[in-house]
Amino acid sequence: MNNGKQMEHEYFQITGGTPLEGSVHAPGAKNAITKLLVASLLSDKKCVFYNVPNIQEVAVTVELCEELGSEIVWDPEERILEIQTKELKTSYIPQRFSGANRIPILMIGALLGRANEAIIVPTAGGCNIGPRPIDYHIESLKTLGASIEYRKMRKEGAYFAEAPHGLKGTLIPLPFPSVGATENTILAATRAKGTTIIKNAAIEPEIIDLILFLQKLGVIIFVDVDRTIRIEGAKEFHEVQHTVITDRAQAASLGMAAIATKGRVLVEGAQHQHMITFLNALRKLGGGFEVSEEGITFFYEGPLKGGLHIETGVHPGFLTDWQQPFVVLMTQADGISILHETIYENRFGYATTLGEMGADIELFTHCLGGKACRFAEKNFTHSCIVKGPTPLIGKEIVVPDLRAGFAYVLAALIAEGESKITGLHYLDRGYENLSGKLASLGANIERVSTAAALV
After folding, report:
1. In 3-state terms, what secondary structure has residue 88?
2. What residues act catalytically?
3. Which numeric CATH code is attached to 5-26+247-454?
4. How far apart are alpha carbons 245 and 157 in whole angstroms?
């Protein structure tokens, strides 16, 4: 008998080689609903969200909002979440949220115009895919009139932010169309006096979804074709009902799984207009798809053809969250393909593991592409050449981050033999019941729990 404590460990057990067949629902976008919950803090009115994914990232954001005073009713089965923040209980975000996700830093923009005291936000977290500095956030908020400083607090640091003289609309040119900086600036500008103009703003579908929500809330907000967003400070707010857009990263991931396993899957809810660049690349590779009112059906229609040159980029470019599973797909295509990552400098960590499974992937610090890249001559590994097709062999894998995690699952689904994948908490951040959905399509996958004794 062991009197030690028990720690629960979970892993995926996958046996590859089974084509996926059937239909599966693509949930609401992780990167939309989490920002919408933060945006709801701008007002004291009730907001009701539909198509809310039941994932860890939402659960953490809910806990964070409740910490600040939000009243929340969440029905995960019906995918409905109601939130209302009649008053703020605090503007201090505890350190335990520092590594949870990237949401705490957006609280500065959301709370600056509403909090009566300094906002204290722990240092940002999220997946380990590069430092993702928040300089653009800070400078934009300062330009609007905020006072922000970084201070050491015990083991970690925190940002102290306030706007003692209020926020005032102004012109903010972003050096790079950063999604986070654009979101933070929009949130702060909503309660600023006058008009704020953001130049070189990000225009991802998740940001447009945020803009649509804010317009319902009562904000006067415009988007121009030249990446200019114009916000007039809101004078009153309204109750809102809003349906969250489909997660385009998950829709594409599920589609790639269908093609890689030589199957056919209808991804219900997949939105064509948000996936144009991905679908073009998929068709060039030889993958099949059909668009219908229900969503997009992805299918294998013959040997995949390499010879692609993909460069990730800001929307409407090739989404960086698509590239990891797409590289797995490239390993099954006949020929040589190239991928150049221009958004994050540390997103090829998964390639080593794929190589151990049999993939032929060579990494480079040079820019293998013509697109202007922030990482040129900086010695970051951010390009790769993939030669295929190569058979993959199952192995034990530890997941390092969310998107690499799905790339490993995809590799395991097409590999010969069994794979054991641990580190499922990363996948749980963004994927709703992943093993259940894949199993419903015929995948030989099981989520296994084991209790390990701690003395």
Report:
1. coil
2. 127
3. 3.65.10.10
4. 34
Whether the CB-CB separation of 157 and 198 falls below 8 Å is answered with no
Average pLDDT over residues 219-235: 95
Question: Which of these, 286, 205, 235, lies nearest to 113 by C-alpha position?
Answer: 235
For 30-243, CATH number? 3.65.10.10
Q: Measuring CA to CA, which residue among 30, 152, 42 is closest to residue 98?
A: 152
Q: How big is the CA angle at 181 (ends 29 and 152), to the nearest 5 degrees?
A: 110
Tell me the H-state helices in 333-423: 350-356, 402-414
**Residue 385: helix, strand or coil by DSSP?**
strand
Rounded Cα distance between 31 and 205, Å, is 10
403, amino acid identity: R
Peptide bond preceding 389: is omega within 30 degrees of 0, i.e. cis? yes
Residue 17, both tokens: 């080689």
pLDDT digits (tens, 9 = 90+) for 242-281: 999 999 999 999 999 999 999 999 999 999 999 999 999 9
Dihedral angle of Cα 16, 337, 389, 406, to the nearest 10 degrees: 0
Q: What is the Cα–Cα distance from 177 to 424, expressed in whole angstroms?
A: 31
pTM of the model: 0.93
d(Cα 311, Cα 254) in Å, to the nearest integer? Answer: 21
Give CATH 3.65.10.10 domain extents, the chain.
5-26+247-454, 30-243
- DSSP letter string, 89-146: S-SBPPGGGTTT-S-TTHHHHHHTTT-SS-EEEEPP---SSS----HHHHHHHHHTT-
284 token code pair: 């060039």
155 compared with 293, residue with greater pLDDT: 293
DSSP assignments along 32-68, one per residue: HHHHHHHHHTTSSS-EEEES---SHHHHHHHHHHHHH
